[in-house]
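Fold this: C2H2-type domain-containing protein
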Amino acid sequence: MRRQWNLKRVSVRMVDCKKIDMVHRFNCHLGGRGLSSGEAEQHENEDNSISKTKHLKKHQYRYTGERPYGCDQCGNRFAQSDHLVTHQRKHTGEKHYHCLDCGSKFKTLNELKVHQRIHTGVKPYGCDQCGKKFAQSRYLVRHKGLHTGEKPYGCDQCGMRFAQPGYLVRHQRIHTGEKRYHCLECGSSFRFSNGLKVHQLIHTGEKHYHCLDCGSSYRTSSALKVHQRIHTGEKPYDCIQCGMRFAKSRHLDTHQRIHTGEKPYHCLECGSSFRSSNVLKVHQLIHTGEKHYHCLDCGRSCRTSYALKLHQRIHTGERPYGCNQCEKRFTQLGNLVNHQRIHTGEKRYGCNQCEKRFTQLGNLVNHQRIHTGEKHYVCDQCGKRFAQSGHLVEHKRTTEEKPSHCQDCSSSFITSNELKGHQGI
């Protein structure tokens, strides 16, 4: 009887293709698993302590919970040194394993094997409830939660519940602010290893996922999947308030702020608030005066590439969006969508202060200023403020010019409506 680990020496029969032989195994009293004599690194002197055997020690760590190998970057600890080496590649970015099909690189052999299932189509993990198959076991575990609905792991900060403890651990980093994964190139930090992986592709320039319809390339499979909705027309995210559908969840989030009135992005220069960070960025160009996009036809400068693209249609005469109800064509898709509501009679934008409804969001926004008293548009000559941009334009014409002229008597008027009244139209 071995004293230190309570090891029992037993004889078992091992079979290979050449012969049947008797070998010794050592049983662990903690878990009952047998360790081969090769694993136990038998010594010539049987009195030599098997507690020194590295393979037995590794096995014992499973039951004692001991993790002697610590990462000096993030503090994670491991029972085996090779697990630490694999983990440290997250910090160093080393990728020793290469896919021969597409050139993708991976930190571990297991990651490469899982990736190769994209090319082979192998999905070895099947759900015994519905038969759906998965390439990775964790996807199967996540899927099974749909059938049971069980979420035993709860967050003590916000009450959210999760089907797996790993999901809870990841979620709790939102509350703690912990960002344990760091980019060695630029110092950016991330809560999750996946976030770091995607970020590092910015530095390497790798884009392994290609659209078969248009050839566009993307860093992640999820980004490609979202892009492909342009071609398929799929819009899986719908607004429960008005029924509008969106291809991206973040577009739905931004849209819903129309209904809630939330404007979380604020300009530090003038205090204006916006529903999305992109609109804030464009707005800030007003203060900086930056206009990086220039028209080669007339020299006009625009703040965004999209604004330049729309402007250039003035020169080309391009109106790519046509109405299928009448013959009108438009330079912008949004203008076509707004126009089509004339035919359908749809007024999807309703005022929450009164019962008025509008075909266009801009008209609703302008209308709501009647209730709020907001006057965003300021005359730079006299300081007078207006609720609508059109009213500011009319005011400026009053003080500067009368652009509408009668061809019969040469009278001039501030607005086209005044001219029409004069002409009796």
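Confidence is low (pLDDT under 50) at residues 1-52. The first helix runs from residue 54 to 64.
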